Amino acid sequence: MEILPGVHRIGNAVSTVYLLVDRDDGLTVIDAGPGRFSRTVLRYLTHIGRRPDEIRRIILTHRHFDHIGGAAALREVSRAPVFAHPLDAPQISGAEPNRMPKGPTGVVMRAVVPVAFPWQPCRVDDDLADGQTFALGGLGELRVMHTPGHTLGHCALLLPARSLFIAGDALNNFSGTPATSFDAVNDDTPLANRTTVALADLAADNLVFGHGSPILGNGRAALQQAAAKARAALGEA
Ligand SMILES: [Zn+2]
Ligand SMILES: [Zn+2]
Hints:
By secondary structure, this protein is α/β, with parallel strands linked by helices. It is built from seven helices and 15 strands.
């Protein structure tokens, strides 16, 4: 559904894809969902009267299966370049094994994921870098923010024209208040908490997440709350 003008959310229980639709620039896909989620994305494009060849770029926030599973299929049908941070790209492309979480969560996921969400590695065409911008026509500038911790190459995105922060899994919103992702699925939880603290004063009224409902209109206060929780977790409260 269109949650802000030109900003669409395509979600299911496992993951969420964001689609930025600009009349001049075309379509930007952010994350690709798990497994065969590309079909859901393509059906959504048809539903809003757009075509796959209008996709200009596919931006992957990080290497986890629930964000990249549909990327190879979307890249093939759109011929659009795929962007990811160089610290996560080798696991997306298959040059390195895509590591599962540590501990019991990882044991369960190693058993379940290949069966429930089979996916192919996806070639990464270009790097994402902190501070990099994409010019999206009428939607203005889309700014890349390296937000490490959940994974070391995790990147979030800021769309100032919509006062929108696209958090990926840097934050989740399972509880109604955004929070740093769970330790079991993080590469480095203290680093993830430091990233959350650094987001405290971000100028974003609207927040969207890889997991959990959007926060529209009250984003700045929510980011302050998330930072306070992260500071407490770091023992800095
Ligand atoms: Zn993740
Ligand atoms: Zn995720």
